[in-house]
Amino acid sequence: MIVKVADLKQYLYCPRIIYFTYVAPVEKKVTAKMAIGKEEHYATVRLEERRRLRAYGLSEGERHFNAYFYSERLRLEGVLDMYIVTPRGNFPVDFKNACRVALNHKYQLVAYALLLEDHFGRPVRGGFIYLIPRKQVHYLEITPEARLYTKKLIGAVRNLVAREHFPEVPRRSGRCADCEYRNYCGDVL
């Protein structure tokens, strides 16, 4: 099974999303939050194309947008919002319509870093998450521990799909309020 980078984000948010995507596929309802997020994302790309790299602490570099990457070694694929190529190295950039960097955002960025490494054959030491509402850039170091955990997540997604296991409700049930799969979880109010 080829895992999508977005699957890792979804798995950390709620593993049931993976279940409803791959094991028992259901029709997904696009929520207002998702529609707004998509519009904000496109607007951010248009703005980023005209901006300089100062917000990223870089003096030079070449930007690339909406780039598809695939790693045969990891059996992982994803479309990266932006990456920056500099003489110092390559940096993945993920745009988020959120006010803070969440754990699932972090590991999504690490997965993109792994894809960049495989594609270009050079290590990626860090990346950026751009928080759209705040117009803030956060640098995240890509540590060996984060790489290892991300690889474990890839395996966990594959394992969930292979076992066809219906996961428990996440501890933070407040996440269910805006979930597109909420109607399919009978044990969530």
UniProtKB/TrEMBL annotation:
Annotated GO biological process: defense response to virus
User: InterPro entries from the xrefs?
Assistant: Cas4_exonuclease (IPR051827), CRISPR-assoc_prot_Cas4 (IPR013343), Dna2/Cas4_DUF83 (IPR022765), PDDEXK-like_dom_sf (IPR011604)
Signal peptide extent: none
Q: List the keywords (alphabetical).
A: Antiviral defense, Exonuclease, Hydrolase, Iron, Iron-sulfur, Manganese, Metal-binding, Nuclease
Q: Which cofactor does it need?
A: iron-sulfur cluster; [4Fe-4S] cluster; Mg(2+); Mn(2+)
Q: Which Gene3D superfamilies match?
A: 3.90.320.10
Q: What is its EC number?
A: 3.1.12.1
What Pfam family does this protein match (any one)?
Cas_Cas4
- Output the superkingdom of the source species: Bacteria
Task: List, in alphabetical order, the Gene Ontology terms for molecular function in this entry.
Answer: exonuclease activity; iron-sulfur cluster binding; metal ion binding
Q: Which residues form the DUF83 domain?
A: 6-185
Q: How is the cofactor bound?
A: Mg(2+) or Mn(2+) required for ssDNA cleavage activity.
| PANTHER family cross-referenced by the UniProt entry | CRISPR-ASSOCIATED EXONUCLEASE CAS4 (PTHR36531), DNA REPLICATION ATP-DEPENDENT HELICASE_NUCLEASE DNA2 (PTHR36531:SF6)
Concerning its family, UniProt says: Belongs to the CRISPR-associated exonuclease Cas4 family.
What's this chain's function?
CRISPR (clustered regularly interspaced short palindromic repeat) is an adaptive immune system that provides protection against mobile genetic elements (viruses, transposable elements and conjugative plasmids). CRISPR clusters contain sequences complementary to antecedent mobile elements and target invading nucleic acids. CRISPR clusters are transcribed and processed into CRISPR RNA (crRNA).
Q: What is this protein called?
A: CRISPR-associated exonuclease Cas4
The protein's organism comes out as: Ammonifex degensii (strain DSM 10501 / KC4)
